[in-house]
Structure formats: C-alpha cells, structure tokens
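so ive been stuck on this for like two days lol. basically i have the seq below and the ligand is zinc ion, smiles is in there too. i just want the complex predicted, nothing fancy, no docking runs or whatever. if the output looks off dont worry ill sanity check it later, just need somthing to start from for the group meeting slides
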Amino acid sequence: MKSSISLFTALLGTTVSIASPLMAQQEQTSILIDNASYWTAGMNAASGPMDILIEGNAIKSIAPEITPPEGAEVIDAKGKTLIPGLIDTHVHIMDTLSPNALKNTDLFYLAFLAEQNAERLLMNGVTTIREAAGPSMGVKRAIDEHLATGPRIYPSGAAITQTGGHGDFRNLDNPTPQKGGYADETETMGLAYIADGKAEVMRGARDAFRKGATQVKMLVSGSVSGLHDPVDVQEFTEEEIHAVVEVAENFGTYVMVHAYNDRSIQASLRAGVKSIEHGNLMSEETMKLMADKGAFLSAQTYTFTQKLPYFNDSQIEQLNSVNVGLDQMFTLAKKYNVTITHSSDIYGTPENFANAPQEFILRQKWFTPVEILEQATTNAAQLLALSGARNPYPDQALGVIEVGAFADVILVDGDPTKNVSLLAKPDDNLSVIIKNGEIYKNVLPD
Ligand SMILES: [Zn+2]
C-alpha cells in the first residue's frame, strides 16, 4: 500500500514539473506570412500577393498589406502558395506491425512507431488525421501536450469487428470465447474489438468512447487482404450496425464503416452510418443512396496499388476487382455530387507513410487539382466536424484559410491549384508547415 501511494505521489510530481515548459510554449506569438499567393476552398485558383497574419493558434487577418506587429516573426513567402494544412480522413498510425509481429512487442513500442508515423504525416503537410483503428488516444494527447510531434488526431479506438471479420486475426484453432478461446494481441492492444449481437457491439462502441474516441469505426464488409472474409461478404447485420449508430448518436457523434460492396454499404446507410470507407464496389443504386443520405465517401487509390508480398491468388484477384471498381465509384460519386474526402489508408512504418502523398498523383485520373485540394481540406473538415459533441478541436474552423480559423497552413513551392503533384514530394516542395500557429518546418532563408 505504501509503495503505491509513493508511486502516485511521484506521478503527481511529474505532472507538476512538466506543466510549466508546456505552458511556456503556448504563449501568444504572431507570425506574418508576407507576400504569399494563397488558396482556400471556394477559389478556382491561387491568388495574391497577400499577407496572412497568425496570432496565437488562429488566423487573425488576411489583407494585401499588413504591418507586422511588434515582435512578430515575418516569413517572406516570395510568392509561393499558402494553402490550408492537409487533412487525411483514414490513417492507421497505430497499425504499424503485422498481427504476428505484435506478439513480440508491447504498446510502448507501438506508441514510438506511431509517433514517428505521426511526425512523417505532419512533414507531408498533413495537419489533421482521423485515426481509423487503434489506441491512438495517448499519442493524440502527447501531441496536443507537445510531448510528441504530429497532426491533430481524431481517434476511433478499436475497430468493432464480428467473429471472423476483417479485424479478427486469431489463429484458426483459437475457439470463440464461449468455447474457451482467448483474445489475441490485435484485441488486447486495442486495435480491434470482436463483438457479435447488439449488446456486444454496443459495449464495444461505449468502450471506445470511454477511452476517448471521437467517432466509432465498424468493419462491415470483407476485405482485400482478408483470408477468411472475402471482399463480397457483408459483416454484421443492419440491426447490429444500427445499434452502434445509436450509441454514437447518444454520444453526439457518428459511425464510420469499412465497406466495399453494395450489400454492406446499403445496410450501413439505412442504419444511419455517415462515413463510408473504401466503397470501391458500389453500384449506381448505392451511390444514389449515398447522395440521398448525405453520407461522405472516404476513398483511397494508392493503397490499392500495393500488392503485398504475401498475397495469394485470391487476394490478388480481390485487389484487381477493387481497383477496377475505383473508376466506376469516382465517376458515379461525381455524377451524384457525393462528398469525397482525401484519405490514404496508410499503415505500417514511417517509410510507408512517406508514400501516402502518392494519393495526390493518382487522383488526377478523375479530379482536377482544385477538386483534389478541396477533398483534402474543406470536404475532410466537414466530415470530421460530424464528431459534434466529441470534436476535440471544436472552437475554430479546420481546413480553410479565413479569419478566425485554426492556423494550420502549408507553404508550397509552386502552385498546387495547377500542379497538385507538388504535394507528392513534400520534402522538396513544402517550404513551411504551421500547425496550431506553431512552425514545424521553415526552410526559407531568413
Ligand atoms: Zn483502413
């Protein structure tokens, strides 16, 4: 008993001692970005020259000529293009290792990998992400408290998966819990939550919110990589999906679902799901329903170019089918004016996270540079705002350059409204990265 009290006291001491340097970093500062061209959603092209003044964590003013306030840091943009920080609505910073490799690690190691992934994303110009499966709440908190470097995070917590679903990585000879089975590392580490029936899926959702999820993720269809859940399968019943939607709505937020096929997407939409992840195999009828329900399409391209070394023939066949589906999906989404967001579904280690911006190249097959920029800024911000009462960054706008918005901006060497491929090489083409009014990268000469 005595030792546990002293541990608690020691922890309290730690909290007090780190509080002061953190507060010092949050002091009011001003940054004047001088002589920039700029773009924000609603503009057909970049325009300038313009001055943008940042005060604290907000954009204070935008005008052709602003006199720098006393003590302001002045960045001469030399006509480069300032755009809102990018938002990725489907990322897996926690999904760093294969289910097998998880057996030989612990959450502390995973957190270090996740932090490296988060930092790589920020250096890609991504200032906000939605984490799509896993215990990212601690990493989010560490970033918000300046203990680590990375984007703003909207965590989903453990993805709710059915027995045998996309998130069930147990060995085949591990029985269900009712028959003496045991949870594997994917579950014990909080990446997935296996549940069947209304009561269990609701418990999974409530547990995610208990841990700080801002929305809940459900895996409602088979997957490309799945060995035991082919991509044509619907996972969960409409009733189970609706039960999770009800829990999310009780928490003032929404549900996002991994879903490829018509059957699973339609069930989700009828159940009240607001964010469809992937969606590659949807028909015209389903896309119409997406539009009717006002659901968002959080779709990807780059991830489907990745034929993983361990893929067998059926996995390769599934990969090919979802790649073929992409063309129809994006064409239909445009036809029915469904809101598409930028998302990469990037996972693994920082080396792979460096590939996430390939998304900006591949989407040009269907979209103009300005459309692609809108997907990565306002469209994505609208989706994240559905987290409503659970929104961790509620007070100011995200994904726009306007007075009062969060000062999340990146300076591009060139004009991404004409050449959006510039964003695919962030190390070369991003001169300045600012998140929450703080400079994380500035390679411009003083
Ligand atoms: Zn994913």
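The chain has a mean pLDDT of 93. The pocket of zinc ion is lined by residues 90, 92, 132, 345 (CB under 6 Å).
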